[in-house]
Amino acid sequence: MKKRFLHWIVAILILTGLLAAACIVSLCIGSTDIPLANIVPALVHGGNTIEHTILCDVRLPRILLGVAVGGALSLAGVILQGMFRNPLVEPYTMGISGGAALGVCLAIILKLSNRCGIWSLPVFGSIGATLTILVVYFLSTRRRVLNIRNVLLIGIMISFICSSLITLIMAVSRVEDLHGIIFWIMGSLEQPNVFLVKLAVVVSVLSLALSYLFCLELNALALGEEEALHLGISVENTKRLLFVLASVTTGLSVSVAGVIGFVGLVVPHFMRLFLGSDHRILLVASWLCGGVFLVFCDALARTVISPTELLVGVITGILGGSIFVYVLCGKPPVPGGKQCSK
Fold first, then answer.
1. pLDDT in tens, 42-87
2. Exposed, middle or buried, 254 (CB in 10 Å: 0-12/13-18/19+)?
3. Contact status, residue 122 vs residue 103, Cβ threshold 8 Å
4. Domains in the chain: how many in total?
5. Residue 188 CB neighbour total at 10 angstroms
6. Contact present, 75 and 287 (Cβ < 8 Å)
7. Which residue range is the domain that position 301 belongs to?
């Protein structure tokens, strides 16, 4: 027991160090490189210098948003994978990301941000994500019991429907609205509104704290629903609460940064490979690793073809998908299965 907890502490320290390193590197590099020795003086005593403006108005908000959104999406992935005991479940395949993006697209074409304020985007994103997961939940429920086998298929179909509706909205929308819609679909951390950045950070940290309250319930659900019932877990109520938590967390992330794929799939999968399936460590480790992954991908997006900037969703899709396929193909073959050839 002591050895396991020591292993967990070491893992948390390593991930925290990687997150700090990723943030520092991201502060230094970009279309205009800033030496590491100039970072602290520019932040503290920079005043109206160019370096101070670049760090405080551009890079630091992106880093905070990357940590918050990466952690939130990874957290949602851990929750959903733990509930369904399926490593392929994530906010995107469940239709949550698509529902949130659809809600934000509606807010954009209705120009609600001009009428009601910038907070209308996260509100509509969260509403879209919550409504989507409620539809998936009720369509998968028979006699008040959730059919786990149907959830993923229905979620994928709902995701396709949302994507088709977004395409329809793009086809009939005005040119000035089209850029904003494409921004949300591709995913980007270029968020100039400080309020949304602060909101994303607060919600991401709160989601981590709330999800940790359910770590033992998630461990019980990982054993199976019957075993969880025998352990005294209120399975249906727990699943409803976790559904809402995952959908609100994803909805806010999508409304702020757009649809960023593979973070909720790849990061929990890797953390489970290295640290096991105990959610007492898996939730925190995935949150930290999600922040590392997204900050690193954003740094690549800003520098790989500098001064032109790629959208971070492109990098997460290429990098995350490639790594995930490589790991799956490199695994030992299971009995009765075939191993991918390299």
1. 888 767 788 888 888 889 999 999 999 999 999 999 999 988 888 7
2. buried
3. no
4. 1
5. 22
6. yes
7. 17-330
